[in-house]
């Protein structure tokens, strides 16, 4: 195995809830309110849709907001890779990756291990735009040990997915890889969003399943796999060794697209379906304030 090269699950597609659009001569990230399943190929119009995208849409009513999935591993931390990450926007290279305790930072002397204070308390992180960055690896369709990756910098998505994975792992007695699950898109409003919905990813039981039935099915499938000679524990260990083989998990080929979609220039801002509504709310507030101030001085 090549040292310094992180061995990550083979990815054959992407799951996203947004895209990059051309706006006023700039390429900016645009959020969406539904899932899109794509290949790893781009053309002039963006990422090429995966055949599964059409299949999933035909089986749902309205927008694609749930996707049945299987986990690759029993260990929750192997399915969801999350850390604080900072990329150099000029070179597109990973600059610093940390877990809140320690970080691996690229310098002129090589990769250095330093304390990780989290983005809010780190001078470099505040200046350069460090933020949580997660990758969820899931299986769709029938191709074994081939992953679709959902990348996200949403704190809501990362926290929710991390909690769900641990809960399902615990309640199933560690049989996470055989639990029938599905990704679900949820909406919420915050004071920062001015009551405009923001969307995050959740992980729930497959539609129609009860917890009891799902756990029973997970253990029966696991029993069948063991009888057939499938060694899930060895697979998890192989993945664990592969992840730890390199300092940074994103490949040089994928990083530019990651930076463009999730780490835009500070001068840019994300465009979302509700962004115009937010701007209108702000404009209305400023207008009312101006009117009040004028009235008080007249």
Largest sheet: 12 strands, mixed
Q: What spatial form do the alpha-carbon principal axes imply? A: globular
Oligomer: single chain
What distance separates the N and C termini? Answer: 78 Å
User: How many domains make up the coordinates?
Assistant: 1
How much helicity do the residues have? Answer: 25-40%
Q: What's the order of the H and E elements? A: EEEHEHEEEEHEEHEEHHHH
Number of strands: 12
Q: Radius of gyration in whole Å, from Cα?
A: 21 Å
Residue stretches low in confidence (pLDDT < 50, at least 5 long) are 267-287
Organism: Pigmentiphaga humi
Pfam family, one: Gp3-like
Protein name: Hydrolase or metal-binding protein
Explain this structure.
With 298 residues, the protein is α+β, with helices and mostly antiparallel strands. It has one domain (11-77, 135-297). It is built from 8 helices and 12 strands. The protein is globular and about 50 Å long. The relative contact order is 0.18.
Overview in brief:
With 298 residues, the protein is α+β, with helices and mostly antiparallel strands. It is built from eight helices and twelve strands. The chain is globular.
Descriptive labels:
298 residues; alpha+beta; 12-stranded mixed sheet; 8 helices; 12 strands; 33% strand; Hydrolase or metal-binding protein; Gp3-like
